[in-house]
Amino acid sequence: MSFPGQVQDGNLGIGPEERWRRLRAVQDHLVAREIDLLLVVGRENLIYFTGTTQIECAALLIPAREEPCLVALWLDAPYLRELTGLAVEGYVFPGENLGRRVARVIKRLGYGRPVIGFEKYFVEFSVFEALREEFPEARFVGAGDILYRVRAVKSAEEIACIRQACRLVVAGVEAAVRFIRPGVSELEVVAEAEYAMLRRGSGGSPFRPQVVAGERALLTHPCATNRPIKEGEIVVVHLGATWNGYCAKMCRTVAVGRVPEAQVACFELIKKAQEAAINVLRPGVKAAEVDRAAREIIAAAGYEKHYLTYVGYGVGLRQSEFYPIIGKDSPDEISAGMVVDLLLPTVYLPGFGGPRLTDCLLVTETGAELLTPYPRELIQVM
User: Fold this and answer.
1) What is d(CA 292, CA 289) in angstroms, rounded to the nearest whole number?
2) What's the pTM value of the predicted model, to 2 decimals?
3) Which residue intervals of the chain bear CATH 3.90.230.10?
4) How does pLDDT run across 125-144, given as a tens digit for each residue?
5) Residue 91, Cα to own-chain centre: how many angstroms?
6) Any idea which architecture 153-381 has in CATH?
7) What's the pLDDT tens digit per position in 74-122?
8) CATH number for region 16-151
9) Nearest-5° Cα angle at 230, 224 to 235
């Protein structure tokens, strides 16, 4: 499978205009929330602003009003400076660590008691400790949501990468389905699927591949094991692929021989719920409305208490981004240019639940475009 005009070399090719649009959008949020600086250390966010996957041990400091500054290992500094056009400060480890150099940059900007925004989940303690010691009167606030709001609407270049990742994950599912039969292990199926995606150019799975059979499909986050697949079981195939750092995922359910009618009925129910959610997915609606469309189908069949709170997430540099989150009470608003996945949860009821189904969708001006075109029926293998 070829992808004309694109090479997975780690350089996303974003131009200076797009890079500064992203940075200025973040600064607008910082001003509105009276945050002096935002510290970015999460790898996905660094990729988003620098335009390269070739980045480690770095931080991006985005002041509300001054120019951003990238802090990186001294060996990487010239490359990043040329690639991004940003001011880049190099540090030599172990003589100096990332946190200490970031603190020096903040002091040079003239802050004594700054309000510093953090990504909630990705700041190493050594970085936090250095800033706390250097700025004992600083106020630290969670501000990662700013980054995910800015990242939620994708550029044309990002959508192109996600489309290619979707092509790769479809190839992986096709390979998995061809290999599934009684007696082969879940991990053997994963190996076939991963090989199919990797040899076509995938950068690897963004999560632990899930090929699970039987009752294990009712686990919240199941993963493949050496367990052999048995006749009469359903097999959930949930795979992911990446292209230049951008993710895609999809899930299908395979019936191996004759499976219980209850599980066939469960699959048809979640498929109907997914279709209802897709039909509502369009610009201007709240994420809770998309969830409600699916949830009403499940509730009408009497299974709402066996169902989860969330049915989808944004998809991009993470396989499950933090905006938008499509769930029961989510206030997030759907916009054109977002890419989301719908609808992974099953009905968590032994003897009935287990089947799953999910796809990546691009929100267009008029509705939703399916990016993972593969049959959405229950797949039967004998």
Assistant:
1) 5
2) 0.90
3) 153-381
4) 999 999 999 999 999 999 99
5) 30
6) Alpha-Beta Complex (3.90)
7) 999 999 999 999 999 999 998 889 999 999 999 999 988 999 999 888 8
8) 3.40.350.10
9) 50
